[in-house]
Amino acid sequence: MAALRLAVSNVILCLLLPSSSSSSSPICAARMQDHVRTAYHFQPAKNWQNDPNGPVYYNGMYHLFYQYNPHGALWDVGNLSWGHSVSGDLVNWAALGNALDPTAPFDANGCASGSVTILPDGQPVILYSGIDAERRQVQNIALPKNPRDPLLREWTKPSYNPVVPLPADVSADNFRDPTTAWLGRDGLWRFAISAVATGVGTTLVYRSADFLRWERNAAPLHASRDAVMAECPDLFPVAARGAEGLDTSARGPGVRHVLKVSMPDTLQDYYTVGRYDDEADTFTPDEDVARGGGDDDYRSWRRIDHGHLYASKTFFDARKNRRVLWAWVNESDSEADDVARGWSGLQSFPRALWLDPAGRQLLQWPVEEIETLRRGRAALLGAEVESGGLREIGGIAGSQADVDVVFEIPSLERAEGLDGNRLLDADALCGEKGASVQGGVGPFGLLVMASGDDLREHTAVFFRVFRLLHGEYTVLMCTDLTRSSTKAGVYRPTHGGFVDVDIEKDRSISLRTLIDHSIVESFGGGGRTCMTARVYPEHAATSSSHLYVFNNGSDAVRVPKLEAWELAPASVNVVPEQEEEEEEEEDGLAASSNMCTSSVY
Ligand SMILES: *[C@@H]1O[C@H](CO)[C@@H](O)[C@H](O)[C@H]1NC(C)=O
Ligand SMILES: *[C@@H]1O[C@H](CO)[C@@H](O)[C@H](O)[C@H]1NC(C)=O
Ligand SMILES: *[C@@H]1O[C@H](CO)[C@@H](O)[C@H](O)[C@H]1NC(C)=O
Q: Which spans are transmembrane here (predicted)?
């Protein structure tokens, strides 16, 4: 109770103190730390989270499990549990107790990533990697203790685990992350899993008639000679036409497949569209998407996201007939900062994804439920942003917003020339040609999380059009973090990616950006190129953040339409007051700092 009273008085203190003095108040120091906490992205109330696990829609409820360290804000593999939350709308979440803790011999050193599959009788099953008492990675199942509990609160790990022990040719620490299982024509279940088998990085397939006894298929689903271990594989069907999602077991004409892996060496997610042979259980990438290196190097595949986003995982949402992607977005300031805040890691806002009409790549888009959070709206209609122009989009909270804008390009004549070699490293190109480097057609885009004074702090999300040697055009998208924070030692990279559009024909390009205090998620060209960035601006501790449209190209660009909405905070894993009262004073402080943040935005 004492803690709660303290919490309440903190809120008042933070609000009453003028911003200049609040930074010197010891109580508001806690709040200052937590201007980083998000308002509508998925986070547990405290502690470390990483990979999304077992996302599923079951009995009218969305479930998200996640890699969770219940003991602190840093990664601690031996203590990894499965946190568990439920939602009716993918936006507001209620926290339940952990679904899995490392308590059995077959997961004594950690409950690593995995999936949920719903069997034909309606029974959900967790399939996950345990790190066993001998530190081997093995595959286990868990079942709901009470299948009639609509929230699936408690899970039982049968003592006959592991259902798949470590194979003789696989190294002990390279066998993990089973996918959601799918049912073949022959009535057998299959799941895919990452492994290093006889020294080769592969994605293996296991088959089973009863979900208990699993047999490895001799041929791997896919093998990569160049890259060693991949992790968090995901194999899922997409409709050749249209945005509707498909059940993981869907097959037949009009169904294509996507294979995605996460590469620990680059900490990036890669995918390709291809053909899954459901008899041989092999996957062959389409030729035209295996760009750059050979198709056996995952790192030459397309990126799920060109910023920092990892360990993504999709599920089929039968409620709205769509496929939805979750992914972990890590912190990029210091571990000391994470410990001080008491938490680390976000999930990206859930994205619907589908195949683009040309069949070459995925399109990703925030799920429409985000619109339920929209409050105030600001708009710009039929505006022209001249060379060097900067226009503020006022009237909404710039730190909690959803911005959707279309840029029209009157002329491509002054596009800068670009050597084809430069297509290989978009990050470097964005680093060289940042927002303040004037160009021909672009840079134009948004300045977000900008300080009100002199733009001392701002994050730029923008496009730049280049003309290649043979005369065709290419569009570069960048998120430039070099001025995102004035704090010493903060990671401030430039993220870049090309957008696969025909700008000569379209003469326009769209940008959607979700801003949430310390995360900026951008979707260029209708979700063709996605870019997630973490930002830690100092000004946000004590003052509001601003939003602008800018153009630093030599020609004007037109903005036929820009809409920006302020987003209300979602209710994400809020700790009920009763529990909070029982917590120690320190936790009371952390909780109060959230309240402060949400009232200051
Ligand atoms: C798990 O957490 C506990 C409590 O913080 C700690 O004592 C223990 O060393 C951790 N175990 C491992 C394997 O890291
Ligand atoms: C997390 O952030 C750092 C920057 O601090 C980055 O270099 C790293 O690759 C990221 N890790 C993951 C798993 O995304
Ligand atoms: C545009 O370019 C000028 C000149 O380099 C620079 O001062 C200004 O900061 C740039 N604008 C942005 C948004 O970077």
A: none
Residue with tokens 């006022």: 394
Position of tokens 């979707």?
Answer: 523
- Token couple for 553: 């190209």
CA distances from 227 to 204, 218, 220, 266, 301 (A): 15, 20, 15, 10, 12
**Dist. CA 157–CA 518, nearest whole Å:** 37
Cα–Cα separations (whole angstroms), residue 561 to 270, 315, 382, 439, 464: 33, 33, 6, 23, 19
Question: Rounded mean pLDDT of 4-8?
Answer: 30
Which residue's C-alpha comes closest to atom 6 of ligand 3? 436
For residue 431 the two structure tokens come to 């680093």
User: From CA 591, how far away is CA 14, in angstroms rounded?
Assistant: 13
Q: Which of 179, 160, 187, 280 is nearest to 237 (CA)?
A: 179
Distance 425 CA to ligand 1 centre (A): 41
* Rounded CA separation 235/254 (Å): 16
Regarding the beta carbon of 459 and ligand 3, being less than 6 Å apart is answered no
- The Cα 479–Cα 600 span in angstroms is 26
pTM of the model: 0.91
CATH of region 373-567: 2.60.120.560
With a pLDDT cut of 70, the percent of the chain lying above it is 88
585 or 192, higher pLDDT = 192
Of 183, 261, 275, nearest to 223 (Cα)?
261
Confidence of residue 199 (pLDDT cuts 50, 70, 90): confident
32-37+48-366 has which CATH code?
Answer: 2.115.10.20
- Asked if the model's pLDDT at residue 361 lies above 60, the reply is yes
The CB of 267 under 6 Å from ligand 2? The reply is yes
Residue whose CB lies within 8 A of the most ligand 3 atoms, among 456, 494, 552, for a mutation test: 552
First to last CA, the chain: 28
Question: What distances in angstroms separate CA 477 from CA 342, 428, 438, 467, one per listed residue?
Answer: 34, 12, 15, 15
pLDDT of residue 369: 98
Domain ranges of the chain: 1-31, 32-37+48-366, 373-567
Give catalytic residues, as residue numbers: 51
HEC string for 318-338:
CCCCEEEEEEEECCCCCHHHH
